[in-house]
Amino acid sequence: MIDLDDIRAAARRLHGVAHRRPVNTSRTLDELTGAHVFLKAENLQRAGAFKFRGAFNAVASLPAEERRGGVATVSSGNHAQALALAARLHDVPAVILMPEDAPEAKLAATRGYGAEVIPFDRYAQDREALLAELVEARGLQPVHPYDDPGVMAGQGTAALELLEDAGPLDLLLVPVGGGGLIAGCATAIAGVSPGTRVIGVEPEAGDDTRRSLQAGERVTIPVPRTIADGQQLPAPGELTFPVVQQLVEDVVTVSDAEIVATMRVLFERCKTVAEPSGASAPAALLHGRLPLPGARVGAIISGGNVAADRFAALMEEA
Amino acid sequence: MIDLDDIRAAARRLHGVAHRRPVNTSRTLDELTGAHVFLKAENLQRAGAFKFRGAFNAVASLPAEERRGGVATVSSGNHAQALALAARLHDVPAVILMPEDAPEAKLAATRGYGAEVIPFDRYAQDREALLAELVEARGLQPVHPYDDPGVMAGQGTAALELLEDAGPLDLLLVPVGGGGLIAGCATAIAGVSPGTRVIGVEPEAGDDTRRSLQAGERVTIPVPRTIADGQQLPAPGELTFPVVQQLVEDVVTVSDAEIVATMRVLFERCKTVAEPSGASAPAALLHGRLPLPGARVGAIISGGNVAADRFAALMEEA
Fold first, then answer.
1. Is the pLDDT of residue B76 over 80?
2. Rounded to an integer, what distance in angstroms lies between the CA atom of residue A241 and that of residue B178?
3. Which residues of chain A make contact with B44, given a CB cutoff of 8 A?
4. B48 to A309: CB separation less than 8 angstroms, yes or no
5. Residue A238 has pLDDT above 90, yes or no
6. Best label site of A176, A277, B131, B154, fewest CB within 10 Å?
7. What confidence score (pLDDT) does residue A27 get?
């Protein structure tokens, strides 16, 4: 388990390295939701997503002699880019296992940061087994995208900053994939603002964490088919789930169509680019998943890595 | 002619009313251009464009008894929305003449701010004559989109803020439509940073100001067909052109294809939404119109009012 001290230590490591953008407010979103909305724009984070926080903190936390041999991970995209960048900033090699159907822009960006990319079939191959083999064969340090205390602590700095910048919040909405972001954020909130309710948001087709909370244990579903590729995971993390069980009030779901509609609102009204997973928390706000009138609500736009052509295709299908 | 004092007075009127966003820097743009690029994100301004600055300052500068009867203008879009919002904030009526082929989102947004919209045919009708008739018939105060000292002074506050926030600049790139933004910005720069070169950017098909500078007098061209609808004007302004002649070093042009490519870069790398006219100044940076290596260069993203469907269509045609 991580605690507030771990997150504060991560915040010190990330100071001056991660981008800290002002919190976005929007009259339009306030009018549409009836709430006072504060958006944490992690789409504007380095490498385009919150994932940089956790990856950098994890790499920075490794003993120097372990770090020197290089790092490795398996990721659908944003953690891949984040770890590639974190490794480059520490001047060590990175080897990344990526689903072969990950968006081309993410594959290219990861290579662009100097990492070696090894593709795999996310519907047929066991990602954890592949990573274990790779790490063993090459003498690399694995940096798991979410089941890693350094990663969880790094992600939690997003909530710490949001609270500092937005002031008191009644509610915080956090997108849930493997659970690293929400575990870190819920830990930060429990430490500094225990009255703030933390709610997770999953795509309808990928509601493994919601089901797991209901079942009281980690439930595995078939790899979900959803446009929210950052949330396309079959089960919550081993380390993240107990934190979610303890500190997260609820998980709500949004449809792919609601995500696309929200990407459109963010584009047209906020002039900002969210990838599908990045739009899921604002989508829960805009589509009435929670009673909001008058509440001060934070929501994390977790990433903005979507190619213009893919955005165009999503708009035209809608 | 306006001077620095007019712009400072406008800055005081706009303080706490206009948005002042942090200047955007981008490693990607720096790598692509070889310069140190500072983007002034007026796409994030109220009503989605720099036009709010000038419209609000002009309305605020009217004597109360004149303002009370309402204001009117003719505009392809962003000044229309800006004046509608400025009028609403002063609690006075606004009547706006808009080209019937202006983007639907802009027509709707202008009505959304409570203005009365009167459509006209921009290829057949004389916009100035129409406005004169309207103002006379209804007893309204005209607020011209650029040929108005209050508007020019208001627009100049964008350059004042950019210099304050970015520090010294070697070069400032400003999109040119009617010339209000560049006239105001060049006046501000001449007052506080005379060593900064001010360069205008026009769409290739709408290079009326470039031609006028070469001719030494205002040249009128057929209404240009370009995707940059905010720069779709046949001639420089009567009041703005002498300022441009005196204070602007040069005007360069960019093609529609270069504008679309730049909208894509801003979307994918900066996660920000620029409308076609809003992308023209960064397009000049990205497409080698100026010798940039090592220079500190400011560029104004003048607006972000583009519908997601139109953005999608532009991406798919490219």
1. no
2. 58
3. 271
4. no
5. yes
6. B131
7. 87
CA distance B278 to chain A (A): 12
Contact A310, A278 (CB under 8 A): no
The residues, any chain, with a CB within 8 Å of residue B267's CB and separated by 6 or more, are A273, A308, A311, B273, B311
Residue B122 has pLDDT above 90, yes or no: no
Angle, in degrees to the nearest 10, between helices A4-14 and A149-166 = 80
Instruction: Name the nearest CA neighbour of B33 among B161, B171, B158, B166.
Output: B171
Separation between Cα atoms, residue A221 and residue A58, nearest integer Å: 28
Write the DSSP assignment of B4-57 as a string of letters.
HHHHHHHHHHHTTTS--PPPB--HHHHHHHSSEEEEEEGGGSGGGBTHHHHHHH
User: Distance between CA B182 and CA B160 in Å, rounded?
Assistant: 12
Note whether A184 and A7 are within 8 A (CB): yes
Range of lowest pLDDT (A49-63, A218-232, A262-276, B144-158): A218-232
Residue A318 has pLDDT above 90, yes or no: no
Picking from B174, B185, B190, the residue whose alpha carbon sits closest to that of residue B303 is B174
Largest CA distance in chain B: 55
- Is A76 designated active site? yes
Of A48, A272, A315, the CB nearest to B273: A272
Average pLDDT, chain A: 95
List Cα–Cα distances, B242 to B186, B217, B218, B236, B245, in angstroms.
12, 9, 9, 10, 5
List the catalytic residue out of A147, A207, A208, A275. Answer: A208
What is the C-alpha end-to-end distance of chain A, expressed in Å?
42
Residue of A24, A44, A81, A268 to mutate when probing chain B, most B C-beta within 10 A: A268
Tell whether B272 is within 8 A of chain A (Cβ). Answer: yes
Q: Is A305 exposed, middle or buried (0-12, 13-18, 19+ CB in 10 A)?
A: buried
Name every residue whose Cβ is closer than 8 Å to that of residue B133 and which is 6 or more positions away in sequence.
none
Residues with Cβ < 8 Å from B217, sequence gap 6 or more? none
How many angstroms separate the CA of residue A33 from the nearest CA in chain B? 18
Which of B271, B315, B316 should be substituted to probe chain A, the one whose Cβ sees the most A Cβ atoms within 10 Å?
A: B271
Specify whether A126 is catalytic.
Answer: no
**What tokens appear for A137 in the block?**
């064969």
H-state helical runs in chain A: 4-14, 27-33, 51-61, 64-68, 78-89, 104-112, 127-138, 149-166, 180-192, 208-215, 240-247, 256-270, 280-286, 308-317
In whole angstroms, give the CA distance from residue B118 to residue B100.
9
Q: What is the pLDDT of residues A115-161, one digit of tens each?
A: 999 999 988 898 889 999 999 999 999 999 999 999 999 999 999 99
- Beta-bridge mates of residue A98: A119
Crossing angle of helices A240-247 and A208-215, rounded to 10°: 70
Q: Which of A146, A158, A170, A103 is nearest to A301 (CA)?
A: A158
B206, B237, B278, B298: the catalytic one is B206
- The verdict on whether B202 is a catalytic residue reads yes
Q: What is the DSSP letter of A287?
A: T
Q: Between residues 6 and 25 of chain B, which touch chain A (CB distance below 8 Å)?
A: 21-22
Query: pLDDT of B17-59, one tens digit each?
Result: 999 988 999 888 999 999 999 999 999 999 999 999 999 999 9
- What is the predicted pLDDT for the residue at A289? 87
Whether the CB-CB separation of B247 and B274 falls below 8 Å is answered with no
Is B208 designated active site? Answer: yes
